[in-house]
Amino acid sequence: MINIGIVGYGNLGRGVEANLKNAPDMNLVGIFSRRNPDTLDTEAKAYHIDDILNFKDKIDVLILCGGSRSDIPEQGPALAEHFNTVDSYDNHSQIPNYFESIDTVAKAHKYVSIIATGWDPGLFSLNRLIGEAILPKGDTYTFWGEGLSQGHGDAVRRVEGVKDGVQYTIPNTELIDQIHAGETVEYTSKSAHNRDVYVVLEEGADAEKVKNDIVTMPDYFEGYQTEVTFITEEELHANHAGLPHGGRVIRSGETSPDMQQVYEYGLNLGSNPEFTAAVNVAYARAAYKLHQEGLSGAQTVFDIAPKYLSPKSAADLRKELL
Amino acid sequence: MINIGIVGYGNLGRGVEANLKNAPDMNLVGIFSRRNPDTLDTEAKAYHIDDILNFKDKIDVLILCGGSRSDIPEQGPALAEHFNTVDSYDNHSQIPNYFESIDTVAKAHKYVSIIATGWDPGLFSLNRLIGEAILPKGDTYTFWGEGLSQGHGDAVRRVEGVKDGVQYTIPNTELIDQIHAGETVEYTSKSAHNRDVYVVLEEGADAEKVKNDIVTMPDYFEGYQTEVTFITEEELHANHAGLPHGGRVIRSGETSPDMQQVYEYGLNLGSNPEFTAAVNVAYARAAYKLHQEGLSGAQTVFDIAPKYLSPKSAADLRKELL
């Protein structure tokens, strides 16, 4: 059995807990939180994060479920001194720095840290790499959605006059159809996605002003085709409580002049955090096996042979799945 | 530069030759054939297969492009004594035996042999593994087509009264829609695929008898929904000369009770042999790099970390694609 610890108990931590029930080769040792462990709504054992070093010899892999903004950049290197770790750090532009910082510690203390697992970064990255390596003469397109974007929802909720709200990222299916048809398209993040916003107004708020403040918001909405719909708080809770997401990576390329080949990877996720957690759990298995083999240091999805994700033997994999 | 040799010059060998033009880090040393090398229609250097050992120190990786029925099972182990090899051996049930036979030789002579690359086996296998590892509670569905099936075309052409013909495998899109909708489906190879046959009759042949002989053919067509269309030789050459194929692997699973997640990998290929060759070429790069690192023995797509497929450095991959 691979003994797992969960650090952080938000949506992602709960997702890891749920997914571990589907992993017959894994055992959840405990959940570690900054909150009072007695207040966590879980049947698993819960501990305060300050007690985690007591579990140094009882846990094979820690799955870090905190936020990428401030939790993971601190916790990752600190915990890599004592544990194998897996995280879903998702600040794309900072990945090289984060890799270096955790690699140094993990190598020095002979642990494995697999960073930036999940689906993007993670499985989408994997398919960007494989698509480009196999079809070097071509273009890669990443589409996100339909799905709930946490960052854009946060931005909407900060607008004056907004009581609550959510944002869905909607891929431009016309553009996808053109790519499928082998046409050359002008892909930009803005041309490839629309944004649907559902807003509950504060009492007395000016709907037109709220709408205008949203659609003109730089970085988040400006330049996108954005639709704002006003709904009641009841509608929000009834119809927008889930965390669906998904998207696709398409590599369209030529193997010889005018010979078109299309490579596509897609996800349609009922729950974004639960699926991210499912990926974390598979890579935790890889971290354990690689550490057993004597490897140490930071790793990404690019560095891990697929066999390490499965509980099956290499011979069984060849027989059953090749 | 990675120096490549091509063994066998049919559709696949020509596909490898075409794809090498897209690989700036690779150099085609020569094509090796059982035929008189002067008769090969290529601008590359061509040699008789009997001269291949003269190239032992000039070639880093051989890509084996012969047939899986008799060429590869003989050539693979024989050539693994002197070269790193990559092949697209595709006799699924015999893969474990083939793996063992080439592994022994490659290990003894310190070469790397990557077997069964391509798309199925190959990239589809990879996605069956990853899908199952991430969503252990679920089902995997493989659909082939729309595309030309070589084996079924051969079977049609052996029927009495058939002058020429082709067969397209057509996936059952209704079943795919049901899987996308999260429904439980009864998947069998027969329920998942239909077969479209285009036949040119011999002069004086009995069309009804030919049709009946085809649709009732055991193993190939019996039990499938098969449509037979009679066409002229001109139509066959004008409309059915390409080698398109493709398909998809879908993993549909739950991460927690009733929380549906759908993972999908699809290919839409203008040319089946050229795409298979593109995969061979990327894995030839991996064979070279792994051999440089001191690895030896047989490997499959399950054993190869994705970074080895790309000409880019690990740091660049993290920066650009993660």
Automatic annotation (TrEMBL), chains A, B:
The pathway to which it is assigned is: Amino-acid biosynthesis; L-lysine biosynthesis via DAP pathway; DL-2,6-diaminopimelate from (S)-tetrahydrodipicolinate: step 1/1
- What GO annotations for molecular function exist for this entry? diaminopimelate dehydrogenase activity; nucleotide binding
**Which enzyme class?**
oxidoreductase
Q: Which Gene3D superfamilies match?
A: Dihydrodipicolinate Reductase, domain 2, NAD(P)-binding Rossmann-like Domain
What UniProt keywords are attached to this protein's entry? Answer: Amino-acid biosynthesis, Diaminopimelate biosynthesis, Lysine biosynthesis, NADP, Nucleotide-binding, Oxidoreductase
Task: List the InterPro entries.
Answer: Diaminopimelate_DH_Ddh, Meso-DAP_DH_C, NAD(P)-bd_dom_sf
Q: What is its EC number?
A: 1.4.1.16
Q: So what does this thing catalyse? A: meso-2,6-diaminopimelate + NADP(+) + H2O = (S)-2-amino-6-oxoheptanedioate + NH4(+) + NADPH + H(+)
Recorded protein name is Meso-diaminopimelate D-dehydrogenase
Q: What quaternary structure, including any partners, is listed in this protein's UniProt entry? A: Homodimer.
The signal peptide, as residue positions, is none
What is stated as this protein's family in its record? Answer: Belongs to the diaminopimelate dehydrogenase family.
Instruction: Specify which residues bind substrate according to the UniProt entry for this protein.
Output: W144, T169, R195, H245, N272
Q: Name one GO biological process term.
A: diaminopimelate biosynthetic process
Listed binding positions for NADP(+) are: 9-12, 33-35, 65-68, 88-90, 117-121
Q: Which residues form the Meso-diaminopimelate D-dehydrogenase C-terminal domain?
A: 118-271
What is this organism's lineage?
A: Bacteria, Bacillati, Bacillota, Bacilli, Lactobacillales
